[in-house]
Write a structure and sequence with these properties.
The chain is α/β, with parallel strands linked by helices. The protein contains 12 helices and 15 strands. The strands form 4 sheets. It has a 7-stranded mixed β-sheet, sandwiched between helices. Strands 7-6-13 form a 3-stranded antiparallel β-sheet, with no helix packed on it. Strands 12-14-15 form a 3-stranded antiparallel β-sheet. A hairpin with a 2-residue loop joins β10 and β11. α3 packs parallel to α8 and α9 runs parallel beside α12. It is globular and about 65 Å long. The chain binds pyridoxal-5'-phosphate. Pyridoxal-5'-phosphate (PLP) binds next to α4 and α5.
Length: about 375
């Protein structure tokens, strides 16, 4: 049996009419940038998250970068992020000229460990960026407490956690701003690149909107040296078609995760830990195994697609050589990077496919 790591086909079949109608609607109107579709999705997504404002952006990286920029974070400032995340979290920080300061994750949850944050706070620290990695919400209470005590901004990276909740409250509502990605593979994905910021702060929302639209608050009036990063009308229309299915798609991921959790029994494979305060949305189902590369190769020969998130920790990436870190600088991030493997997880996996993944892993 061939089981891809991810497939969009079941989702496309479920929403075939809605997606084609969305395309037709925009095409008939022939208005592709800054129109009614963008606004309407922004309203719907703010409503979904439970925030007052949503500003569409070109992608998730820009959502994070524009948030930091709008908060005035710049050269000379430090921003704390987890040492285990996708590179975009760090790129958002360095794009605004600030210095990324890594804090180690909890090996069990994979998320930034609140106990490793306080040590990293200096006079220059301006913000913390919790990343709800793999769809598991961070332990927000101690992070909020630190932010309050040290007067720091919080910019949540929600790129992998659309709809996840911490203590009954949706992620994206804890920070001063939160960045989402709608990259096709995310829990809510466009049919191309797209992103958004959600916030309760009106002035911040307006500034982010302007920064993503050439720094313009009114046509041809430029109050900031801005960027071009807008949510286009077609992607907004596709996202509006998909948003009503998001909870159902997340429930499906939860169901698959439950079957994996109940079915996989292997002495050498560590299953994900779920903080009982959280409702994860399983962007990825992430296991750990000391023989990870052998497990990956074994599953590959059995037709099961897997992925590593991420094979090289950010502090060891070539592009960040100048930060001066080496092997051993962040041992927990390095351990995760060396042992983590993500199993197939997507809306529309069949019972047979899920069962085959479980049985095969148990035979490793
Ligand atoms: C995908 C992702 C991003 C960036 O989103 P893009 O839309 O690809 O720019 C940022 N942070 C995390 C954790 C991500 O997974």
């Amino acid at each position: 049996m061939e089981i891809p790591f991810v497939s969009f086909l079941p989702m496309e079949h479920a929403l075939d009419t809605e997606l084609r109608t969305a395309f037709e609607r925009v095409y008939e109107r022939s208005w592709y940038i800054e129109g009614t579709e963008g606004k309407s999705f922004e309203n719907a997504f703010a409503g979904y998250c439970g925030t007052k404002y949503c500003v569409g952006t070109g992608n998730g990286l820009d959502a994070l970068m524009l948030s930091l920029k709008a908060l005035g974070i710049q050269k000379g400032d430090e921003v704390i992020l987890p040492s285990n995340t996708f590179i975009a979290t760090a790129l958002a920080i360095t794009y605004v000229g600030a210095t990324p300061v890594f804090a180690e994750p909890d090996i069990k949850t994979f998320n930034i460990a609140p106990c490793h944050i306080e040590d990293k706070i200096t006079q220059k620290t301006k913000a913390i960026m919790p990343v709800h990695l793999y769809g598991q919400p961070c332990d927000m209470d101690p992070i909020l407490e630190l932010a309050l005590r040290y007067n720091l901004y919080i910019v949540e990276d929600c790129a992998q956690a659309h709809g996840a909740a911490y203590k009954g409250r949706k992620i994206g509502t804890f920070g001063h701003a939160a960045g989402f990605s709608f990259y096709p593979g995310k829990n809510l994905g466009a049919l191309g690149d797209a992103g958004a910021v959600v916030t309760d702060n009106e002035a911040l929302a307006e500034k982010i909107k302007a920064l993503g639209n050439y720094g313009s608050d009114y046509k041809y009036h430029h109050i900031y040296q801005g960027h071009n990063s807008r949510l286009d009308e077609l992607q907004a229309a596709f996202l509006s078609a998909k948003l009503p299915l998001l909870d159902k798609m997340n429930a499906e991921r939860r169901r698959i995760a439950k079957l994996y959790m109940e079915g996989i029994h292997h002495p050498e494979i560590i299953l994900p830990y779920v903080n009982p305060d959280t409702e994860p949305v399983w962007h990825l189902f992430s296991v750990r195994c000391q023989k990870r590369d052998a497990l990956e190769a074994f599953l590959d020969t059995k037709g099961i697609g897997t992925n590593k998130h991420y094979p090289i920790p950010i502090h060891l990436q070539k592009c960040y050589r100048d930060l001066g870190f080496g092997k051993g600088s962040f041992p927990i991030a390095e351990e995760i990077s060396a042992t983590q493997l993500s199993l197939p997880m997507y809306y529309g996996m069949t019972e047979e496919q899920i069962g085959y993944v479980i049985d095969t892993i148990n035979k490793f």
